[in-house]
């Protein structure tokens, strides 16, 4: 078993626990924006896609990488955009009066 | 600056990105800080992308630039959809996320062949299978939500056996590939079988179960990204994937609890087709109905009103009319609140977003557990497009398919008014005894039309007074 695997597993387990504890505390009011935000964060796979597309190893890998860049970057842009749009709509009664 | 040094700076940028990811979710926990969370996420993403573009391994930027522009061109319109379309947009974004994770895994395999080790093959195989099935499954879910595909569960005899065989076939191919990682001709077969399984997985699931399914697909999409992090040895992917995966997982658990069902039941149960319920015997039960005028006068006389919105409100696009009703009643000193069941709508939190879009203050949107105790002191419970989440049979009738599901206790309110098109049973086809109770008034009609009629009556009465 490669050493990298073990260190990745540590990171995965710790991040999973942090995620679990944080998500539990998110108000159900915001579950929809939560999903779109985590989706945008998950779109960080774009960094891997950029590497695959830009290393230019084979025609196949460049093509696949390019598709992945478009797919994940659309999630990143769209995900942050719609999350912020939704959150701007949430106004408290007090804030509205002032 | 030499290459090693540069690499360290880039790694450092990723560590900052990871910290910002965690802060982003932490700040999202309450509406007061939530937008700061989005900003943190945006900075993290920008930092990570910028650091990656500095990576010395990159030799060609043409396609990167072009596809980044294409991605933005797809992403911006998808970020501008109406709030009623958010569930299908979300399903589509799960599909895109899973697609990119899967195809990066595929590219990684073909770049590595014929030097892929067994261990690498195991990681890639699992990652590509999960990514592929999430891609097609999410597309089916998006199609159902957009109503391109039928929302009802599509089932046939022996379905679960067929689906499980297809999944096993994908796993067997993966195992064969692990034993002999460089049999490249088997790899496409594994991908195709996994893609096919995704279709089989979601097709039988009905619209009412979408909140759970969309959360599960969210979780799969996250875990496929985390696995990709293992394949590429990228910690930033492992963290982002683990956060997204656990988020989807927590939401699925909340959704399952809110329906009193297990994961297995949602995935394989095909809810809402067999309904030979025990209450079919009672035929001459009395239903009382009321006109908009009568409804308006009852609402006017009330001091506490709780509105229960459901998917029907979204379908009828009635949320803005509901806001007018809220404004009119609030102006007359009526206390109006909204009771939100966790699985109301088509995705977690769907109703909150719709009502927030209609400009209803979020402190008027109350969760089920908080508001249930208040129903006995509520003068009017007004149900708009919700059905099963208000069905008292869930508390009382052991024979009911939804027995044990937590519901909003609207039957305890002094008067219950239900806006409904007809007496047809709801999505799950379950009879609702609420409609036959003495204090219940049925308001037959389209949700949007009926609410606007009530508003008109209230305003007209105001002029006379």
General description of the model:
The complex is a heterodimer of chains A (98) and B (465). Chain A has 98 residues and is an all-alpha fold. Chain A has one domain (3-91). Helix content of chain A is 82%, strand content 0%. Chain A is built from five helices and no strands. In chain A, helix 2 (31-42) runs antiparallel to helix 4 (59-89). Chain A is flat and about 60 Å long. Chain A starts with a helix and ends with a helix. In chain B, helix 4 (86-112) packs parallel to helix 8 (210-232), helix 8 runs antiparallel to helix 9 (235-258) and helix 11 crosses helix 17. Chain B has helices at 3-27, 34-53, 62-79, 86-112, 118-145, 159-179, 186-202, 210-232, 235-258, 263-268, 292-301, 311-315, 319-331, 350-357, 368-371, 393-396, 447-464; strands at 304-309, 335-340, 365-367, 380-384, 415-420, 440-444. The model of chain B is unreliable at 271-281 (pLDDT under 50). Chain B has a six-stranded parallel beta sheet with strand order 3-2-1-4-5-6. Chain B is globular. Chain B is built from 17 helices and six strands. Chain B is an alpha/beta fold and 465 residues long. Chain B folds into three domains: 1-77; 108-271, no CATH class; 282-464, Rossmann fold.
Short structural summary:
The complex is a heterodimer of chains A (98) and B (465). With 98 residues, chain A is mainly α.
Q: SS-based structural class of chain A?
A: mainly alpha
Give the end-to-end Cα distance of chain A, rounded to a whole number of Å.
61 Å
The coarse silhouette of chain A is flat
Q: How many domains, in number, for the residues of chain A?
A: 1
The tally of domains of chain B stands at 3
The averaged pLDDT of chain A comes out at 92
CATH C-level category of the largest domain in chain B: Alpha Beta
CATH architectural grouping of the largest domain in chain B: 3-Layer(aba) Sandwich
- The radius of gyration over CA of chain B amounts to 26 Å
| Sheet with most strands of chain B | 6 strands, parallel
Q: Work out the helicity level of chain B.
A: 55-70%
Number of strands of chain B: 6
Task: Name the beta content range of chain A.
Answer: under 5%
End-to-end Cα distance of chain B: 81 Å
